């Protein structure tokens, strides 16, 4: 998949740099989609009583997209140099940084979930040390 994205980006790089407005037109709806799907799913998880880990998993699963499938369909149907393939290339370029940013939002949202799993961070986030009181 990474190889396909690199090749498509190489083929579409000129279109992205020479017509940045097209990339922005593709990116803005994606930004709104990721934010609304993530926030809505996180709120829904909390509303139905899910704990923090489950609500966060739900939110990231709902906000994530299957750009791999979209890229494959665009290439097969329209060709690697089509505008549709351009949209498929811009998608992951927007999705990855947005979802990484939402990780920080999710970490901040822990405080809105009751229970020990909400206040205890994973070992990857908080280094091991003496127990906190």
From TrEMBL:
<keyword id="KW-0472">Membrane</keyword>
<keyword id="KW-1133">Transmembrane helix</keyword>
<dbReference type="InterPro" id="IPR038770">
    <property type="entry name" value="Na+/solute_symporter_sf"/>
</dbReference>
<dbReference type="InterPro" id="IPR004706">
    <property type="entry name" value="Arsenical-R_Acr3"/>
</dbReference>
<feature type="transmembrane region" description="Helical">
    <location>
        <begin position="57"/>
        <end position="79"/>
    </location>
</feature>
<feature type="transmembrane region" description="Helical">
    <location>
        <begin position="25"/>
        <end position="45"/>
    </location>
</feature>
<keyword id="KW-0813">Transport</keyword>
<keyword id="KW-0812">Transmembrane</keyword>
<protein>
    <submittedName>
        <fullName>Arsenical-resistance protein ACR3</fullName>
    </submittedName>
</protein>
<feature type="transmembrane region" description="Helical">
    <location>
        <begin position="85"/>
        <end position="107"/>
    </location>
</feature>
């Amino acid at each position: 998949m990474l190889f396909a994205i690199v090749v498509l980006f190489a083929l579409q790089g000129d279109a992205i740099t020479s017509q940045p407005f097209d990339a922005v037109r593709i990116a803005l709806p994606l930004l709104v989609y990721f934010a609304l799907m993530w926030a809505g799913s996180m709120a829904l998880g909390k509303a139905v009583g899910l704990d923090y880990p489950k609500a966060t998993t739900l939110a990231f699963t709902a906000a994530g997209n299957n750009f791999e499938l979209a890229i494959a369909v665009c290439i097969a149907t329209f060709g690697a140099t089509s505008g549709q393939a351009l949209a498929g290339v811009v998608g992951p370029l927007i999705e990855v940084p947005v979802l990484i940013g939402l990780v920080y939002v999710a970490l901040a949202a822990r405080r809105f979930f009751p229970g020990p799993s909400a206040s205890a961070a994973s070992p990857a986030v908080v280094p091991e040390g003496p127990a906190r009181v």
